[in-house]
Write a structure and sequence with these properties.
It is built from eleven helices and eight strands. It is α/β, with parallel strands linked by helices. It is globular, with a radius of gyration of 21 Å. It has two domains: 2-180 and 279-346, Rossmann fold, CATH 3.40.50; 186-272, Helix Hairpins, CATH 1.10.287.890. The chain binds adenosine-5'-triphosphate (ATP). The site of adenosine-5'-triphosphate (ATP) has 18 residues, from helix 5 and helix 9. Adenosine-5'-triphosphate binds at residues 73-76, 85-86, 139-143, 222-224, 274, 277-278, 281.
């Protein structure tokens, strides 16, 4: 349909929230728009990889003290590759309990959508039964869909060209979608890969590399970074040193360096592709009648990248830029989400 081709990010980022057009609803009589006292209330944070969902979840938890977070990122379910899959580090969790984050030890098998539906369903029920507020946070939209719909058919691909998601959900959901202009997200994602490499992603992947499993693409081995570097490590195997453990090398000669750069480029390209697919799926869910409220983090991420350009990072101008982006984030993303959640909880 023509609606599907509407690209929200190109249309509205410069408009203030109050003037941004409301998305058309498919059918305002759809039952899930009415509050249903019998359903568990659930906050759902959606958005492409890198859009700030984890940060927002912690900021929201600061306003709603009984919040507990349930992960809905397919790769972050697994135990391992914390840097590569971008798990929120413990010190950034500020004591907020997280569930299904790194809890799956069987990393050599895919988690099925129906399995996620069952495990996350139990987790949410447990959180709610103790009087806490569940926040679902993560970018796997097929998992979010499988978990939330009233009836789930594992055989049906609702994201296929001819498919369509059901708007009838088994929870009383409050959806917040963090989005931003594509040009800003893509620039940020490229920088983020560089930062992940700086914080040890290459070493983490060298440690994880298993020549007997190279080319196997199931479970955690699907994480962006693993296939891309497997090809590199097959050519340039990391070695075991008694003092330093597994040591990879990227700098000993220019050809090796070039192969490394090529792997990094593939990681970036695959990350852009992932983000595009995720945004496409979110738009499909919105189109199907899911009541998503889109928040625009474009200005925040522009300011964040400005900050990263200020060197040295201890300079007064860098400190000012740090305050600036935090302030924009607070005003444009955190405050509106707090309002939305408050209204939802008072319903
Ligand atoms: P699909 O139908 O494509 O599986 P999905 O919405 O269910 O989509 P996604 O979360 O988009 O699931 O993940 C799809 C793929 O993207 C994963 O198999 C993996 O290659 C990559 N990916 C997703 N999340 C991460 C992550 N946190 N770290 C690394 N790679 C990821």
């Amino acid at each position: 349909s023509s609606f599907r081709s509407l690209d929200s990010q190109l249309f509205y980022p410069s408009l203030p929230l109050s003037r941004r057009p409301r998305w058309p609803r498919m059918d305002s009589s759809v039952p899930h728009h009415r509050t249903d006292q019998s359903k568990t209330k659930l906050i759902v944070l959606m958005g492409a990889t890198g859009s700030g969902k984890s940060r927002l979840s912690i900021d929201l938890a600061g306003h709603f003290p009984h919040s507990q977070i349930v992960n809905s990122d397919k790769m972050q379910l697994f135990n391992g590759l914390d840097i590569t899959t971008n798990k929120i580090p413990i010190h950034e969790r500020k004591g907020v309990p997280h569930f299904l984050l790194g809890e799956f030890d069987s990393i050599d098998a895919d988690v099925a959508a129906s399995q996620f539906r069952s495990v996350a369903g139990t987790t949410i029920a447990d959180i709610a039964s103790r009087g806490n507020l569940p926040l679902l946070v993560g970018g796997s939209n097929t998992f979010i869909h499988a978990l939330l719909v009233e009836t789930f058919d594992p055989e049906e691909d609702v994201f296929a060209e001819s498919g369509s998601a059901s708007p009838v959900l088994r929870y009383d959901c409050c959806f917040v979608w963090v989005d931003m202009a594509w040009s800003v997200l893509s620039e940020y994602l490229g920088k983020r890969v560089d930062e992940m490499l700086d914080s040890g992603m290459f070493e983490e992947l060298a440690q994880f590399y298993d020549p007997t499993k190279a080319g196997v693409m199931v479970g955690l081995r699907k994480a962006i970074g693993v296939p891309e570097f497997d090809a590199y490590f097959r050519k340039y195997p990391p070695w075991e040193s008694p003092e330093n453990g597994v040591v990879p090398d990227k700098d000993s000669d220019p050809i090796r360096r070039e192969a490394y750069e090529e792997a990094v480029k593939e990681i970036k390209d695959n990350t852009y592709r992932l983000a595009k697919r995720q945004i496409g799926k979110i738009l499909r869910l919105k189109e199907a009648g899911w009541d998503l409220t889109r928040l625009d983090a474009t200005a925040t991420f522009q300011a964040l990248m400005e900050k990263k350009k200020k060197q040295p990072s201890s300079s007064p101008s860098a400190a000012a830029a740090e305050l600036e982006w935090r302030w924009i984030w607070e005003r444009e993303v955190v405050e509106p989400s707090v309002k939305i959640v408050k209204r939802f909880l008072e319903e």
